[in-house]
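Researcher: I'm preparing a figure for a lab meeting and need a structural model of a single chain. I don't have an experimental structure, so a prediction will have to do for now. The sequence is pasted below. Please return the structure as tokens so I can convert it later.
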Amino acid sequence: MMKFLIALVLVATMSYAEEMGTKGGSCILSQDGKVNVSWKAYKTPAKVGVGGIFDSVKYTAVAPKGNNFREILVGSSVVIDTASVNSKNSGRDVKLVQFFFEQMSSKNITAKIVDIKSNKRERGKPKTGVMSVAVTMNGVTKNVPMEYIFNKGDLSATGNIDLLDFSASKALSSINKACFDLHEGKTWSDVTIGFQTNIKFELCHAK
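Model: Understood. Here is the structure written out token by token.
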């Protein structure tokens, strides 16, 4: 009977550690300090996606280590240099900078994680949840919900913004005009945004 009780305690302890607990736990989580920011915009009436990244992203972590996601992520921020936009097409990048980003009030986009809520953990499946990210662009700040997934140390999140919410109609009209034929007269205002980073975990059984 005693062996059975000990076994139950061990199983419960491991399950709790796997949660990497929004409430704490025995894990030590740490970041490597690098964040990759991605985007996908849409053109033509068929809504064809065109994606890319930003080569210059300055990330400031609220804490290098912590016991849970909230401790190391909420309060962390990025500063994105829009002149570093990279769609793997140099001609397109020049147009994006000149006819879109330079029409904004600032050449930088900033974002800060202001909240995080984890979904109930399912054993054997990646950890998921939703982050609230305050995005500031063109002098306007909006909280954007971003769904995240954490799997084997890789943390990625995606969300959607509407450029019109950031008073960017001027910039949108400018890029649409510059690329009118290529876009078949239609440049969409919604954009998919995302980021990816690596998180290490120690002293726990998170998978």
